[in-house]
Amino acid sequence: MGEARTQRSFFDQYLEKLRHVAEIIDLAPEAVEILSKPKRTIIVSLPLKMDNGKTRMFTAYRVQFNDARGPMKGGFRYHPDVNLDEVKTLAALMTLKTAVVNIPCGGAKGGIKCNPKEMSRRELEALTREYAKALAPFIGPDIDVPAPDVNTDAQVMAWFLDEYNKVVGKIVPSAVTGKPLSIGGSRGREGATGRGVFFIGLEAASKLNISLKNARVSIQGFGNVAFNAAKFFYEYGSKIVAVSDSRGGIYNPDGLNIYKVMEVKRKEGSVTKYSEAETISREDPLTVDCDVLIPAALERQITEKNADNVKAKMIIEGGKWSDNS
Amino acid sequence: MGEARTQRSFFDQYLEKLRHVAEIIDLAPEAVEILSKPKRTIIVSLPLKMDNGKTRMFTAYRVQFNDARGPMKGGFRYHPDVNLDEVKTLAALMTLKTAVVNIPCGGAKGGIKCNPKEMSRRELEALTREYAKALAPFIGPDIDVPAPDVNTDAQVMAWFLDEYNKVVGKIVPSAVTGKPLSIGGSRGREGATGRGVFFIGLEAASKLNISLKNARVSIQGFGNVAFNAAKFFYEYGSKIVAVSDSRGGIYNPDGLNIYKVMEVKRKEGSVTKYSEAETISREDPLTVDCDVLIPAALERQITEKNADNVKAKMIIEGGKWSDNS
Amino acid sequence: MGEARTQRSFFDQYLEKLRHVAEIIDLAPEAVEILSKPKRTIIVSLPLKMDNGKTRMFTAYRVQFNDARGPMKGGFRYHPDVNLDEVKTLAALMTLKTAVVNIPCGGAKGGIKCNPKEMSRRELEALTREYAKALAPFIGPDIDVPAPDVNTDAQVMAWFLDEYNKVVGKIVPSAVTGKPLSIGGSRGREGATGRGVFFIGLEAASKLNISLKNARVSIQGFGNVAFNAAKFFYEYGSKIVAVSDSRGGIYNPDGLNIYKVMEVKRKEGSVTKYSEAETISREDPLTVDCDVLIPAALERQITEKNADNVKAKMIIEGGKWSDNS
Amino acid sequence: MGEARTQRSFFDQYLEKLRHVAEIIDLAPEAVEILSKPKRTIIVSLPLKMDNGKTRMFTAYRVQFNDARGPMKGGFRYHPDVNLDEVKTLAALMTLKTAVVNIPCGGAKGGIKCNPKEMSRRELEALTREYAKALAPFIGPDIDVPAPDVNTDAQVMAWFLDEYNKVVGKIVPSAVTGKPLSIGGSRGREGATGRGVFFIGLEAASKLNISLKNARVSIQGFGNVAFNAAKFFYEYGSKIVAVSDSRGGIYNPDGLNIYKVMEVKRKEGSVTKYSEAETISREDPLTVDCDVLIPAALERQITEKNADNVKAKMIIEGGKWSDNS
Amino acid sequence: MGEARTQRSFFDQYLEKLRHVAEIIDLAPEAVEILSKPKRTIIVSLPLKMDNGKTRMFTAYRVQFNDARGPMKGGFRYHPDVNLDEVKTLAALMTLKTAVVNIPCGGAKGGIKCNPKEMSRRELEALTREYAKALAPFIGPDIDVPAPDVNTDAQVMAWFLDEYNKVVGKIVPSAVTGKPLSIGGSRGREGATGRGVFFIGLEAASKLNISLKNARVSIQGFGNVAFNAAKFFYEYGSKIVAVSDSRGGIYNPDGLNIYKVMEVKRKEGSVTKYSEAETISREDPLTVDCDVLIPAALERQITEKNADNVKAKMIIEGGKWSDNS
Amino acid sequence: MGEARTQRSFFDQYLEKLRHVAEIIDLAPEAVEILSKPKRTIIVSLPLKMDNGKTRMFTAYRVQFNDARGPMKGGFRYHPDVNLDEVKTLAALMTLKTAVVNIPCGGAKGGIKCNPKEMSRRELEALTREYAKALAPFIGPDIDVPAPDVNTDAQVMAWFLDEYNKVVGKIVPSAVTGKPLSIGGSRGREGATGRGVFFIGLEAASKLNISLKNARVSIQGFGNVAFNAAKFFYEYGSKIVAVSDSRGGIYNPDGLNIYKVMEVKRKEGSVTKYSEAETISREDPLTVDCDVLIPAALERQITEKNADNVKAKMIIEGGKWSDNS
Predict the structure, then answer these.
(1) What would the pLDDT profile of D45-102 be if each residue is shown by its tens digit?
(2) Which CATH code is given to the segment(s) A39-183?
(3) Domain locations in chain C as residue ranges
(4) Mind listing the pLDDT tens digit for each residue in B209-254?
(5) Chain D partners within 8 Å of C183 (Cβ)
(6) Whose CB has fewer CB within 10 Å in chain F, the N or C terminal residue?
(7) Exactly one of E73, E109, E231, E265 is catalytic; which is it?
């Protein structure tokens, strides 16, 4: 969402890639035409009475890109940078993602331009409920099924679903995914992305004839994705040699006990408080000696400057391209 | 829709005026906030199998700006220049218009980016029906009532309504205005804008202490608005001294028989074929000697260059600002 | 519904007339095509637990012929002879009738094949309610508005409407006409057909330069239509010289007091008990000396055999062609 | 709502009167049976997050007593004493009221057990919106049309309607009455009850051969009903000799200028500040010398104790029996 | 439903227990608040034309207590003692039951105050269909799924479902449970409660280190629950030493062949006609010598008076607390 | 659909068989009554603008015979001979078929009277979409689920479903069967009828103590059913000794390689071009020496004339009785 983007939009980048791929796979021009435009875009202004008593209008989006393969899937995010270009592009990518893994779903995406960090819990709930009411006619298990995304956790989905249920007068847990287990959420969803990172690693290792047992794995990050990926590698027998968080990183060539690292982080606020490791910088995990490197913090960490220093034989991108923009 | 607009959007112009007026009338900041954002914007891509067998996707809009005062009203147009900025602004203006004349309605606007002049009748009908199906859940006598606008005549409204009726399984003539009389259209609608021009003239004349009887009226244009305005002035007793069309103008200081002019235009294609008048240029009606000037062709005809030559005591803008852009 | 009809159907007769008229008025072939086929025909089998405990299935119809001009209007009848050919034809005729009198409505017709004279009140109510439930999705003020017809009086309409209201969960008096005044019926509806007969007479008389004042009027029949027609003529000053019912007729060249005749009929069961008149046969009103003849009993009473004996200057068909077949 | 009522319920009182009247007018037992039970009762628990952050559950009612004559009408109130017995009885009375004045409506009533005086504006709005969402499937122009009642003013109706509109996705001003003029409310509604008091007085006076011109009118109360009644009598030419509010009353045998009294009350908080009158007690208007007495404060003011002191020839009950309980 | 209850309502008892448990498990006050009030209560008056031609109004209930965990489940009963207090309490208990066994459902309950033993089959069917129509908008697989209860068997559910299907215009077998197998009912449902009694017995026996093989089981009752429980114990190898019905009991210390007992009961009307056993009183099964006692007739059979005489080591309550009240 | 049928309708034949079977199995008269009449028949006239610019009306049917066992199943066909009698009878047969194989479904059938061989692809698509719009309120997973039949392949179902989805605003793949795999169709559906022929053969062979291994199978036809049946027998080890198409047949007592036969037919247009077999007539497969005969071309091929020449021990009717009429 930086300056470069104002020159060429995110969606233009998508279109360029689409056309490039279309040429390679000899895609019919009509298919390209269809994949170039969202089926339906809904933009609503949501009035919210702020805690200070004043009414503000928030702009919210839902782009339903394509449903040729089935009801649409896609998250919605709360962020000051949310805009039509971004939402439209992410909806297009969701269409491709669901098709690539061959689930009978199309792609959509949504979001509200707001800064959840400056809003109270009550404001967030009220805004979410207004969003649910505004989208209710366009959402549902047979139409479009929202999921959480940046700044929209299980609690937000629960508010959204509760309001949706009120409007339609039914209990429809399948109207959203990513909801709390207690109201029908899926077990394992929280660690799903980390698990995916591991499975990709396993698959890639087998192609490269690398054994992940005892392989040295360095992970930049220790959030949800990073921790869960770490857990899977650890349980499989890999050595997690480095992890990091916003305060810095830690390194131990003999492997870290990631459960203990997590305990320390929970109690003391950072992995750097873990004693059985050497403290390193936030960027060092990218370049420590290792077999597998997993950048799972912010996107675009490997650059022209540090690329030559990466020593891993295999890199698995742990962050979602779309989510860190 | 020219080049100047790319520098400052149509909607930005609207916002600037809104804020200017708000200051004058001391409008509450919350009202300004609400009038600054459309309540709901719907953008859909409509697939159309062209006569040549190929499928094309057309982008169609409906901006429902505000419904605080009642169901929304606003036309939809078919034009290659239709875009979100324009539709949004016109929807905002409709909101103000319905409020100014105090009818219990809000404002909306729509359109399809297409070139009806290059499309067959079958294509236009099929596209209109797709548009109706796509908008059906958002339209209706209690929600938003479309009307014809640029390139969307009574026949287009009939197609739209017929398809709407099929989808909702009911006969709902009140779902659109501007439909043919035979299916419930309003008598007098065709000449309504011209009649409005005349009433404004009458009102203005009374304030200026001018009598319209025998007043000399010059009209640039001879389309629907121009002709109907001409008719009302003519029947009232004014002298229509000049009219014009795309091929040129005619002038007769003793007054034209506008019915005969119309007959000539119908038969021979231009007012310039009318024999009982002097032939002038397309722009001359603006500057001929007259009491009342009605520019009813394209907008923005009186410019820095010709303003000093205008001799009329009273100018009535006959074209819709919004429609001629 | 006699034997002749098995050779050429009622609807074929309609088609023949339609084509004949189409030629005369040069109707577009597409319009003929559209007027030749009902838009939608619904046939349902209604289960009814009879008073004897057994379940019987009744066949019920609703033909919605055409709604190009607006929501459809048309009665439904209960009769052993109800069949698709008849219902379809009557629906077509309703389409023409509403168009002729230029009300914004289309035409429909319905009915249940049953013998109401052999059914208990409870059975009739239960059957009507099943019919209402089966038709509920196709009926309504914006779709098709049933009315009473043969054997379906205001009470039947009230049952139908009550059940309709239950199914849709709303109070919708405008879903049927011919309902009791207490739940929104129209004043004057009961006598409407008779009133129509009188107005036609008045109109015709003016064209023929006949005065209805003191004109001698003979009426075959004394049912709802006949009595109400009689009343209007009587109040206007005509002399009602003959009336009849299924048991015979009465004749008085000086005119009958039709209110007293009705009183006698109510009390004693037949007009023939009226003392201040000569008793005649059921057919005699057709041929008595009179100025105006109104056949208002069964249809097709004037035949090759008696036509020469008709003495009236003016004949007004009081029965509905469609209803007596 | 006092102690006496726990012994015999409000609804039992209604039933007793119903049966009493039924006997007098020889009402069919089945009609009595139907008028003895509400058609539908809905009780909902509404969760509300209070300003202190805690969630409370409020009990809300809607009793839809009878819709045989049309969609139901009836207010809803916010009061700590709201309970099923009261709501049910008032709904029954609404059924009788609409029938008596012969409008095509049935009767209903609703309310929330809450203390609006202890709630913030935000809490009231949120509670009203929850109520609207809970009732939405049962409410509407064709079903049941709520109105304001005790503690539910035009603003409350506007909140209710706005939320109703959001849930149904339409603009339905006819779903409630008593809304602000700006969104479709009726002119004259505010003064309607006072106007009714006057018309009843006029009608009664004519029967008693009393002239209201110069008649001395004493009014207990000076709220909405009392003031509007006063205005009508005053404009008609009656002398308003006494009015009162919760702080006391005023008396002037030559008549009060009620506009000036109102001005004083608005500015200084009580009619007792009005200088051109004698100050009396709150109860004195009941017993001052006058021709017409209008008790329009709390109900049940004329009791065994003061009845003998009432000097008016005519008493018009200005308060609603139902509303002051 | 005896006298004691008029002093403290059934729901008050529930509330007391709820608060008691809440204290023990430290339940959040807001959860207690929510579990103290039904989400939605619907009371309707159903008109029924009795076989004697008269119309009676029946009061019917549906209390939808809580749906936080999913669509609600709960039976409906036909009984003269049905009242709001009872239905509300049973709906609360259903909420707890579904939560305890962790199925994704909430709790509801319903019923009609009527005496099915004094009603004809036709009346019962008509009443059930009216109930279905009245509840249709509130019922469904995603809202609330009724089940049979006291006096509402599979046939009643079939009538209810058939009418529900007619109103919604769909075939929705999942809208009720307890329907006949032929229209989608579940196998094994009829014997489910008896099976549950046995499983509880098995579980309890294992904790008490008792073997049910050859254990002597005494059962008060021989209805659906009692017989099915008997069957499961019998097949497992237990000795059923006593059973009873409303006419008395039978006892055989060597065990009864319960299939033969059932055959006798079917043919001759009572278990007491069974020859291979000693005849005892209706209450004797409670106190005969046995290892397991199953009271499965009416509730509250073991009292202060007979408790000391119970010889069983284990008692399994076979009746539902809620159903026998 | 030949001449014989005009004398006795297809449905009369069905009724005769129904009554015959009812007698044998002692079916309750009420069940016979119910199985004698379709629950709901819908006939619609679909306007279609032909490629030549003219509008034609097509008559389309849907007979929903019975849904007592669940949502209805049944195909729809496009054929010039489609008529109510046929559609009604096939709907009745579908009711019996679904019941016989005990799936929780009822029976329906539909069709459009049209000649798809004389219509363009665009016309077929437009007609199908009109049909879908007209049937949308009566169709759905819980009501009636259409399937392809004569001249209605997977592409037609896809058009129908796409239009249905547009009208209902949801993605409902379960609204039709027989759709393409890519939008949710079932694998194996294409070969299902042929597979059924084989399974019936297997079952019959086991009863007759015939081994299908090496059994000589003669098949009249080589369309979808014939080819798929041939494939299953071939893979099982039977010898396919004869097949045929509209141009003639082929015979090889040692067995044909049916894959090669198919390859030849695809390339050269007829099985008769296959070189490794003797050419025979179109009818010869019925009478060649074989163990199993499968008539899978048109129905009614074995007649009084050739019946004596049939040599097979076992005949399996491969064509659908209903489809070839």
Answers:
(1) 999 999 998 999 999 999 999 999 999 999 999 999 999 999 999 999 999 999 999 9
(2) 3.40.50.10860
(3) 40-183, 192-315
(4) 989 999 999 999 998 889 999 999 999 999 999 999 989 999 999 9
(5) 68-70
(6) N
(7) E109
Question: Stretch A13-18: mean pLDDT, rounded?
Answer: 94
Asked if D47 and D57 touch (Cβ cutoff 8 Å), the reply is yes
Identify the pLDDT of residue B193: 85
For chain B, give the number of residues: 325
D127-169 pLDDT per residue, tens: 999 999 999 999 999 999 999 988 899 999 999 999 999 999 9
Sign of CA dihedral A49, A51, A56, A57: negative
Q: Can you tell me the distance from the alpha carbon of C33 to that of F46, in angstroms, rounded to the nearest whole number?
A: 11
* From the candidate CATH numbers 3.30.70.60, 3.40.50.720, 1.10.150.120, 3.30.1490.20, the one assigned to the domain spanning D192-315: 3.40.50.720
Distance from CA of F143 to the nearest CA of A (A): 17
Q: How far apart are alpha carbons D64 and D42 in whole angstroms?
A: 8
Query: pLDDT (tens digit, 9 = 90+) per residue, B90-115?
Result: 999 999 999 999 999 999 999 999 99
Contacts of D244 (CB under 8 A, 6+ apart): D219, D220, D221, D222, D250, D271, D280, D281, D282, D284, D285, D297
Cross-chain residue pair F169–B122, CB shorter than 8 Å? no
Structure tokens at F206: 């086991």
- Global confidence as pTM: 0.89
Does F28 lie at the interface with C, CB-CB under 8 angstroms? no
Contact of C167 with C136, CB cutoff 8 Å: yes
Cα C182 → chain centroid:
23
Question: What are the counts of helices (DSSP H) followed by strands (DSSP E) for chain F?
Answer: 9, 11
> Do the strands B40-49 and A40-49 form a parallel or antiparallel pair, or are they unpaired?
antiparallel
Alpha helix stretches (DSSP H) within F81-153: 84-100, 121-135
pLDDT band at E318; cut points 50, 70, 90: low
Instruction: For residues E325 and C55, give the distance between their C-alpha atoms in angstroms, rounded to a whole number.
Output: 38
Which of E227, E230, E232, E252 has the alpha carbon at shortest distance from E241? Answer: E252
Higher-scoring residue by pLDDT: D323, A315: A315
Identify each DSSP E strand in chain B by its residue range.
40-49, 55-66, 72-79, 106-113, 144-148, 216-220, 239-245, 248-251, 278-280, 292-295, 314-315
Residue D317: predicted pLDDT: 82
Structure tokens at F242: 């004869």
Q: Which of residues 158-197 of A touch D (CB under 8 A)?
A: 166-167, 169
CATH for F38-183 is 3.40.50.10860
Would you tell me which CATH number, out of the four given (3.10.20.880, 3.30.390.10, 3.40.50.10860, 1.10.10.10), belongs to the domain C40-183? 3.40.50.10860
DSSP class per residue in C150-202: TT--HHHHHHHHHHHHHHHTS--GGG-SS--GGGTPPTT-TTHHHHHHHHHHH
E68·A183 Cβ contact <8 A:
yes
Between helix C121-135 and helix C154-168 the angle, nearest 10°, is 40
DSSP letters of A86-107? HHHHHHHHHHHHHHHTT-S-EE
Q: Is there a contact between B70 and D172 if contact means CB atoms under 8 Å apart?
A: no
Buried b (16+ CB within 10 A) or exposed e, B195-214: bbbbebbeebbeeeeeebee
Q: Do domains A39-183 and A192-315 have the same CATH topology?
A: yes
Angle, vertex CA D257, rays to CA D253 and CA D258, nearest 5: 110
Q: In CATH, which superfamily holds the domain spanning B41-183?
A: Leucine Dehydrogenase, chain A, domain 1 (3.40.50.10860)
Which residues in D lie closer than 8 A to residue C173 (C-beta atoms)?
70, 104
